[in-house]
UniProtKB/TrEMBL annotation:
InterPro entries: FAD/NAD-bd_sf, FAD/NAD-binding_dom, FAD/NAD-linked_Rdtase_dimer_sf, GSHR/TRXR-like, Pyr_nucl-diS_OxRdtase_dimer. GO terms for cellular component: cytosol; mitochondrion. This is glutathione-disulfide reductase. Its cofactor is FAD. It is an enzyme of class 1 (oxidoreductase). One of its GO terms (molecular function) is glutathione-disulfide reductase (NADPH) activity. The lineage of its organism: Eukaryota, Metazoa, Ecdysozoa, Arthropoda, Crustacea. Coiled coil: none annotated. It comes from Amphibalanus amphitrite. Keywords: Disulfide bond, FAD, Flavoprotein, Oxidoreductase, Redox-active center. Pfam families: Pyr_redox_2 (PF07992), Pyr_redox_dim (PF02852).
Amino acid sequence: MIRHEKVLRTFDSLISDVITDELEHIGINMLKNDGFVKASKDDQGTLTVTTKNGHNISGVDCLLFAIGRDPNVELDLDKTGVTLEKGHIKVDAFQNTSAPGVYALGDVCGRALLTPVAIAAGRRLAHRLFDGKTDLKLDYNNIPSVVFSHPPSGSVGLTEREARDKFGDAAVRVYRSSFAPLYYALSERKVKTHMKLVCAGDEQRVVGLHMVGQAVDEMLQGFAVAVKMGATKAQFDDCVAIHPTSAEELVTMR
């Protein structure tokens, strides 16, 4: 049961479309644009779930709510001068809160809710406070993110929609590829890998890279470095491909 038409709706449309279709293809019955109303338990301990759209699902043995998480900020922060913003602690680019000498980082700040992000922000804050590196801060742009779905998916940079909103349709060019990787060469069912490069400007700087498929979770890290460094499509093309691999598709797209 999902509240919208697709899963992973904050990711690029490539990822949300492919993962939604794949979940349905393997037999998961998805109730879209729906929501939970109530659950009742019978004498055998099984549940009947009622949804907002009037569905009654019986024989349910396990009900899991994947509704996200809220920061634990019920700490009388109003007495400390620490400002909240939409339930999260408000910080500046250097992790400073509104109260002098009080810092916050990680999920409680509401940005890039990932463990490595919190670690990176914490390290930079420690160096700034205790190592004399007064200008050190975490750059929250182009942080790579992976969903360990089936198949896995990964993303770094802007989605296609974000790029078009930022640079304008005329300045954005998108490259796509879809193929069955060699991993499935001998299997009856071949799960395709999907890739997308989002490029912007006259030099076609790669501002977004999105993938779904076997091993893309391992593949993304190196390409995230290239996107972080501002690589262009021409520089991707100039890199000699490693054959036969799935990764070569990203440097051979035309």
